[in-house]
């Protein structure tokens, strides 16, 4: 069976190219490699998944900071203190960054640069901007479950 390829330079090819940029490869310690989505997804009324590429940081963030898209369209550290931050949650930063840089975050999948985690433990947005915690903040928002002592599995609960 031949695969149908989009015509070079077509709108379909451009959409596929943009979509492919939202994936990265995660290598597990046991040798398994899997693709991981690193962009934001929005579930629209027609059940169409719409990827949003990384945006511009509105403030300095650290690797592991919880992030959200603010009404200004920039990416800021998220907390559970306001509904807007909870609703705008997009994921966790993959690296340190400063205001004006392009954000690098993972919104769904495995993030494996932690230590001392307890497998099965659930993580929530906390009331401190950018901080994940094992207990919920003012507005309860689960964001991850611990997969191993070094790995969080970010999910959309």
How is this structure best described in words?
With about 160 residues, the chain is mainly beta. It has one domain (about 10-35, about 55-155). Helices cover about 10% and strands about 35% of the residues. It has 2 helices and 13 strands; from the N terminus they run H-E-E-E-E-E-E-H-E-E-E-E-E-E-E. The strands form 4 sheets. Strands 9-13-12-10-11 form a 5-stranded antiparallel beta sheet, with no helix packed on it. The chain has a 4-stranded antiparallel beta sheet with strand order 6-5-7-8. The longest helix is centred in the first third of the chain and has 10 residues, at about 10-20. It is globular, with a radius of gyration of 17 Å. Residues about 1-5 and about 40-55 have low confidence and may be disordered.
